[in-house]
Structure prediction request, 725 residues.
Amino acid sequence: MTKLIPYILFYLFLVPILKGQTNIKGKVTNKNGEAIPGANIYIKGSYDGAISDAEGGFLFRTSKKDTATLVASFVGYDNYEQKMKLAGGTTEINIRMQESMNVLNMVTITAGTFEASDSKKMVMLKPLDIVTTAGGGADITAVMQLLPGTQRVGEQEGLFVRGGSANETKTVIDGMIVQNPFFSSTPDVPQRGRFTPFMFKGTAFSTGGYSAQYGQALSSVLLLQTRDKTDDASGWNINANMAGLGATYTHKGSISGSLYYTNLTPFFNLMKSNIAFDKVPQGLNTSLTINENLTKNSTLKIYGSYTENQSIVSFPTYQSTDSFYKFNLKNKNIFTNGTYQVNFDEGQWILLTGLSYSRNTDKINIGNDAGDRLDERTQIRTVLTRLFGKNNASSVLFGAEFHAIKTGNIYNQYDFSLQDNYSAAFTETELYITPKLAGRIGMRAEYTSAIDKANIAPRVSLAYKTGQYSQVSLAAGQFYQTPEKNYLYLNRNLDYELANHLILNYQIIKNDRTFRMEAFRKDYKNLVLEHTSYYDPNPYRFPTGPTDNKGKGFAQGIDVFYRDKKSIKSGEFWLTYSFLDTERLFRNYQKETMPTFASKHNVSVVYKQFFEKISTNAGVTFTHTSGRPNYDFATTSFAPQYTRPYENVSLSASHIRTVKGTFMVFYATLDNLFARKNVFGYRYSADGKQRFEVIPPMYRTFFVGVSINLSKQMSKPKEADLDNL
Prediction:
């Protein structure tokens, strides 16, 4: 009998407890009725709960009484909560969870845009990618030419996007248009961009269908966002290479000053050049950056730079093989850009204002002839954004901008000048209707005083998530641009040029692999057409005939991009292919035909490998561009003569050394490894009877340098973080 006492006591105490408990069972599904295994279901404020099984089912007991709150949670879904009465017995409840809107599973609008920031799901390139890409020369524009949608044009600076000329792409820093993003142009010698990739936290390269926040670009915008203040480090950074010597000092992460002296004498002494320099390019650049978090809700960014450069080059006159003239260029450039951003109402309102001023002057002597070029722009911009919806994922914004533009061109007895007051207002809303469906609708209105005309441009983008890792996007809109200044010098009665964009995009990102395919159609209207008695292929000619807006054209094609950061340990590669079909009637063309800066096929293969044991990053890039069309002087048939295909194999390497806390990065590049004799086009004598090839300044180039970081920060700088690709 004594042995039964424990069992009797167990029965007497346990049965009342069990009778006071409630069994809760059910099934967890998504909105489509599909089971969600692994969901956490529990009673709020207690330890009673369970994990859903492979079929989404669950069962648990709770001793809670009266009213309680049942909670279900799972990654990628909004928390589910429901109040329920607990009266003992068994309660059955089926839980249907809704997908949450977060960066892990939310659809993003990708049509026409390559993002390169650290904050977006659709990351394509980071600043370090730009620096370590062989064949890019650490130049933002040069690396963008390795992405689909661009054409390789080796004799001019700029981005040529989907059949568009270089002036159809605008560079924008923190929302402000950059008047002169490249160093001043020299005939048939492409110039680098003025800005280092490490100035920016992200890069968005649009190949079309871009936001209503931006305008005056028929084809594309390159959006650059400057870095935020992230630490209070102070220190020096020293750079020495075959092009010059520079130093930067940063004080407490807020103020940075730079001084850089450029002299390409060492470079040209080692390399065989196809161009004769009477004075090699040399110059001085200084800049000041202020980046301060004024409060926890407001930031101030100011950047200013001053640059002087000079070079003297002997170019062929194209009259005979032994006839040359001297091209003497002295350039001075001032650029300032400032923005202030403040968030209020718990971050739901964002106000961004900006002010920018730039002035670029060129003193030019062409043989015995003298000339001046002037570009000046003052602009102010304000954008007010309201965030709303789940996780503040949706937004609506209103903005306005004003530009005072002054340009001039003096050549011997000719003196041309232009003043334009350009203004724009825009609004745009981005709605996340569901986690799988997003839309962006915008409208932009512009007025240009130089032609005394206005326009209204609607734009729309849609994106739908087709799977856990894939989505499709659609973008369409109208894009206006004021005619080039050389035409406006002579004719102020011209109208805006217009391009209508339609883009369809498919993208899948999974396991550090990205596949992207995009089809596009671009229709040009109101292009400036110059009426001349014959065709002159000289790209630097000044208009001589009457002009109007009777030009037209189209561009259509397919772009493919694949990037793999998974398959090769400590390595990655990307492949791009672009097909372009385009024709135009514009400038002094006599019929609608393929423009000379366009090419049908463009292929790029980029491979990078990091060797951890020796702290070295190596890369190789192969590019192929099919032949570009050229048309004979005074041709009437416009039968194209194609250049030979452009091909290039380039190598790069970077090596890190650490000496007593000082980081040193040694880098080297070898461009056009096999010294292929690429031809970019042809120039003609004044009578059109002689033709001369346009070739690169050098067939092969080698470049080395070192960057030394003397910062007091505890971790190595991003410039040295080669393994963070």
Summary: The CA atoms of residues 68 and 84 lie 6 Å apart. DSSP finds five helices and 40 strands in the chain. The two ends are 76 Å apart (CA to CA). The helical segments are 5-20, 127-131, 140-144, 265-270, 485-488.
